[in-house]
Amino acid sequence: MKKTRRWQDEIRRIAKARGGVLKAVHVVQAARPVKSPLHPYFEWDNGKAAEAYRLIQAGRMIRVVVTILPQAPTSSVRALVSLQEDRSKPGGGYRIITDVMSDENLRAQLLREALSDARVLIRKYQTLAEVATEFGAVAERLEELVIAAEDAACQRALDAETPKKTRGRRTA
């Protein structure tokens, strides 16, 4: 049996044994024995685990910082966002939302990620017919925004590469 399948089966077994309600504490308890299929997926060195947990706490703190954007003065948004390109680097990283929104390429990347997130949400709740139509409309609108943002970024890149014509000047 593949390793991934084995630990997933163990998680399902624990959930079933708990009446279908699974909590993280149940998984950790089941993982403590060295022979548990879950054991190797945890850090058991308390010093390393403590440092890793502090990083999780810092990430939580970063994700709750909010700001008000000029274009949406009646609602607050996360002040810092994590783009995929930053998350793929060791240690991750967050960017100031106003910087992302003012850079066409970063804004287009954020829009692509929003579309991807919307698709995940749609798949998660696709069995609820009550929201299927609304989710589809949101995904379509996000797709339009992504295409428009990418087109604008490409056009600006092309414009930047095209030499500016000299107006009325003769060159020797």
Report on the architecture of this protein.
The structure is a single chain. The protein is mainly alpha-helical and 172 residues long. The protein has 3 domains: 1-42; 44-96, no CATH class; 103-162. The chain has helices spanning 3-17, 24-31, 46-64, 84-87, 97-102, 104-124, 129-161, and strands at residues 66-68, 76-78, 80-81, 95-96. The strands form 2 sheets. The protein has a two-stranded antiparallel ribbon. Strand 1 (66-68) and strand 2 form a beta hairpin. The longest helix is centred in the C-terminal third of the chain and has 33 residues, at 129-161.
Keywords:
172 residues, mainly alpha, two-stranded antiparallel sheet, 4 strands, extended
Task: Tell me the Rg in angstroms.
Answer: 24 Å
What is the H-and-E element order? HHHEEEHEHHH
The fraction of residues assigned to DSSP E strands is 5-15%
Report the average pLDDT across residues.
85
Number of extended strands: 4
Q: What's the number of structural domains?
A: 3
Shape from CA axes?
Answer: extended
- Helical proportion, percent range: 55-70%
Distance N terminus to C terminus?
A: 76 Å
- Class by helix and strand content? mainly alpha
Low-confidence blocks of residues: none
The description of the largest β-sheet is: 2 strands, antiparallel
Q: Number of helix segments?
A: 7
Strands side by side in the biggest sheet: 1-2
